[in-house]
Amino acid sequence: MNTGATTVSGTRPANASRRGETRATGRRLPMNISVHVVLITLAVLVWWIARDMVSVTRTLRDASRLKFELSEELKADWRVTSALVVPVSLDVTGPTKRINEFASELDANPGRYSFSYRIDPENLPPDAGSKRIVVVRVDLLQLKPAAEGGAPAELNIRPLTGDRAYEVTLEAYVTRRAYVDLSTSVVGEVSGYTWKAMIAPDTALQVRGPASKLDSIIGANEMARLTISKLDVGEFISNKSITLNKPVDEVLGQDSKHSTIASLVPREDVVFQQVIASETPGGTSKVQTATQVAVEIHFTRQQDFVQVDSRFPVNVLLPNWLVQRGARVRDLEDDLQVTLRVLASQRANFTERNLRVVIDLSQMKDTDFTIEAPEGGAGLFRAKPKTQLYYSLIINRERLTPKYPGEGITDERYLQVSGLSLEWTQ
What we know:
Strands 2, 5, 8, 11, 12, 15 and 16 form a 7-stranded mixed beta sheet that branches. Strands 6-4-1-3-7 form a 5-stranded mixed beta sheet. A 5-stranded mixed beta sheet has the order 20-18-21-24-25, with no helix packed on it. It starts with 18 loop residues before the first helix and ends with a strand. It is of the alpha+beta class. The protein folds into 3 domains: 53-165, Beta Complex (RNA Polymerase Alpha Subunit, Chain A, domain 2), CATH 2.170.120; 174-301; 305-425, RNA Polymerase Alpha Subunit, Chain A, domain 2, CATH 2.170.120. It has helices at residues 19-53, 72-75, 96-108, 211-215, 233-244, 248-252, 320-324, and strands at residues 55-70, 78-80, 85-95, 114-119, 133-137, 144-145, 156-159, 167-180, 186-187, 193-199, 205-210, 224-226, 231-232, 255-263, 271-276, 286-289, 292-301, 305-317, 328-330, 335-343, 355-360, 369-372, 380-385, 390-395, 415-416, 421-425. The chain contains 7 helices and 26 strands.
């Protein structure tokens, strides 16, 4: 008879080996570890995604720029003297990932996101009209992003208030009357002629610019001093002679006026203006920008000079203390040969009526002399000056126009005195 075997699931037969069970358990263990690894990975991924999506606030130091500008109403009367662009820190709220990307973009290009602040008349202090320098304090809450400063939609960006105080310094434009100084600009010679240069009489000039710029060019009578480009009158007349195909003497004649146009030397930030009077009485004058001015040069033919010479008496002017002692001049000639060049028409005026020769001792003290009493001369004293003395000429220049024969000769120092001494009896 066949005996069947009954098997209970999960029950090990009595003669069964444990090794088989052990092997079965070892095959299931790696599957459990893999599941845990996947779960941990998914958890990290979920955390990473959540971290980047959570909204946070982060401060980006000096990451943006603030640009100041003047409104059209102020540009004609003011200028900004402080920095036109300053750094601004930002408070940025949004996902961490987008903040990090935005911060990297700003590091590479700080000007990518910027603010603008327009200064309007209402921003100025009430007394600004009477001041040359004013300071405008900026309210950071009024800042608006510049048109080019786009930002990710996920981010909320605002300037960091309380980070620093922003102030803008403005300087006023002022207007001053002006004149042209020709003393160093007009040079040159024309043989046989003297000349005088001047700005055309009907020229009225003024300047407009920042107050500090105009202060640096204020000259005579509190007017702004302007100059022109170098003008050589010799070259000017020579060129005119060539253009007209006439000799210089024919171009200039006896007494003539010639006009030319000269360029004004520009000044940084300063506008030169010419004021044109109204043609009708009581009308409004016009003002137009000026870069050039009309210069008039007046030429006068020189008269011929001739040499004249004559002897003139020498007059010695003594101080009172020597006059009181009855001092006498010794070792000095009574007259002096004087040689000058004067205009030919003045030759007859070269006389004692129009020229005197003097030795002026009137301001000298006894300490300016070496005084000695010669032996054998009872009560006789003799004095010699310690310093070099000069013959001086006193000239009536309404009658004589002199030219001296050498360099360094003047009215006060015409010729050195030698051998002069004074003598008196005590």
